[in-house]
């Protein structure tokens, strides 16, 4: 049977948006224009709670935010890997959820409502394109540089999913072919060089004397204070990110690259070498025009993007607009924990 695409049904809000991270669970109520009306957060307890305990915390949070008010849909961002669009999730940062049927369970909890789920970094990209730094553009790469490196891709004004929902995964573009091993099993991926723990590890190996248990924020503090090893570590990460962006720009003819996540708080210590690398390696005339900017929406980006899956589904949600084909595209990594994950929280 041929595949026929039709626009998803229109939803006018308010919408419940959920953002699931290894440290915190967040939920918000948003109006039809993507404005946050109310939001709450609660610890995930990923290291101590069972799968059902985490899910119970999530639904309690969602119910508290909804507050008995009528909602017209539910959008969710969650780390991967996952089977998309079925929404069976195995987040690297929530070990208890291995193949957890999150979309199905939420559809049972909110009967009769559209429930749409995507990777958390993809939601950040959708949010930045819809209501953030990329609004008005047609071709955007949204990046998250934090505990992991993830991304999402909007081309010709629409979110690109790819075969398994993993399109835009900038974290596994190779930037150092002989570089460090990556959690995906490859070598020299951007994530292996630029994710927060990798940057800290490199700094330690090269003599940084940060306090025991120190992570990205402490490294940034020392770099700001002039520590030469901390500065070098961030410059190395920024350069690697710039190389990846130059490659993505040449491949996709991007207008805007929006960069968020915890490590982006380093500001010019990360962004200056990143922009230098983009200028050095993006040499074709069309590629030189790419605009690399800091994300605008901050901690709300994932929630706004999750809401966009419902409120602006004509641009950011394709799965339910397909007939004549299977409802689920199993991700190639669904049997393992090495797939798409921003690891952003």
Key structural traits:
345 residues; alpha/beta; Nucleotidyltransferase, domain 5; 2 domains; 5-stranded mixed sheet; 10 helices; 15 strands; globular
Write the layout of secondary structure elements.
Elements: E1 4-5, E2 15-20, E3 24-30, E4 36-43, H1 51-66, E5 74-78, E6 82-83, E7 88-89, E8 100-101, H2 102-109, E9 115-119, H3 120-131, E10 140-145, E11 149-155, E12 158-160, H4 190-194, H5 196-205, H6 216-224, H7 228-252, E13 256-260, H8 268-281, E14 291-294, H9 301-311, H10 313-316, E15 322-323
Parallel strand pairs: 2-5, 5-9, 10-13, 13-14
Antiparallel strand pairs: 1-15, 2-3, 3-4, 6-7, 7-8, 10-11, 11-12
Helix pairs in contact: 3-9, 5-7, 6-7, 7-8
Query: What kind of assembly state do the chains in view correspond to?
Result: single chain
Give the overall shape, derived from the CA principal axes. globular
- Number of E strands: 15
Which CATH-level-2 architecture of the largest domain? 2-Layer Sandwich
Count of alpha and pi helical runs: 10
Helix content: 25-40%
Structural class: alpha/beta
- The CATH topology of the largest domain is given as Nucleotidyltransferase, domain 5
Structure description:
This protein is α/β, with parallel strands linked by helices and 345 residues long. It folds into 2 domains: 133 residues, ATPase, nucleotide binding domain (Nucleotidyltransferase, domain 5), CATH 3.30.420.40; 163 residues, ATPase, nucleotide binding domain (Nucleotidyltransferase, domain 5, 2-Layer Sandwich). The protein has a 5-stranded mixed β-sheet with strand order 4-3-2-5-9, with helices on both faces. A 5-stranded mixed β-sheet has the order 12-11-10-13-14, with helices on both faces. Strands 6-7-8 form a 3-stranded antiparallel β-sheet. Helix 5 packs across helix 7. The longest helix has 25 residues. It starts with a strand and ends in a 22-residue tail after the last strand.
């Amino acid at each position: 049977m041929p595949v026929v695409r039709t626009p998803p049904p229109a939803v006018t809000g308010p919408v419940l948006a959920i953002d699931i991270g290894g440290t915190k669970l967040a939920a918000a109520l948003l109006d039809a224009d993507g404005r946050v009306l109310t939001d709450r957060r609660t610890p995930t307890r990923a290291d101590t709670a069972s799968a059902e305990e985490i899910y119970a915390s999530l639904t309690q949070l969602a119910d508290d935010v909804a507050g008995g008010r009528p909602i017209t849909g539910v959008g969710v961002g969650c780390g991967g890997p996952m089977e998309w669009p079925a929404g069976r999730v195995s987040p690297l940062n929530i070990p208890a959820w291995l193949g957890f049927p999150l979309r199905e369970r939420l559809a049972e909890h909110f009967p009769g409502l559209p429930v749409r789920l995507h990777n958390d970094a993809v939601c950040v990209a959708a949010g930045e394109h819809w209501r953030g730094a990329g609004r008005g553009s047609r071709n955007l790469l949204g990046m998250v540089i934090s505990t992991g490196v993830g991304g999402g891709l909007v081309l010709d004004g629409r979110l690109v999913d790819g075969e398994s929902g993993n399109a835009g995964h900038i974290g596994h573009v190779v930037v150092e072919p002989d570089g460090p091993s990556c959690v995906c099993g490859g070598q020299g991926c951007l994530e292996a060089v630029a994710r927060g723990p990798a940057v800290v590890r490199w700094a330690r190996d090269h003599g940084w004397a940060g306090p025991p248990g120190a992570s990205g924020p402490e490294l940034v503090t020392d770099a700001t204070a002039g520590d030469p090893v901390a500065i070098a570590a961030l410059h190395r990460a920024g350069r690697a990110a710039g190389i990846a962006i130059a490659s993505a720009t040449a491949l996709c003819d991007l207008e805007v690259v929006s960069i968020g996540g915890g490590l982006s708080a380093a500001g010019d210590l990360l962004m200056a070498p990143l922009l230098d690398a983009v200028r050095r390696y993006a040499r074709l005339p069309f590629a030189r025009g790419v605009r690399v900017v800091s994300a605008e929406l901050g901690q709300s980006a994932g929630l706004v993007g999750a809401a966009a899956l419902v409120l602006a589904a004509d641009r950011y949600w394709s799965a339910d607009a397909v007939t004549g084909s299977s409802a689920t595209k199993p991700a190639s990594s669904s049997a393992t924990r090495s797939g798409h994950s921003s690891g952003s929280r």
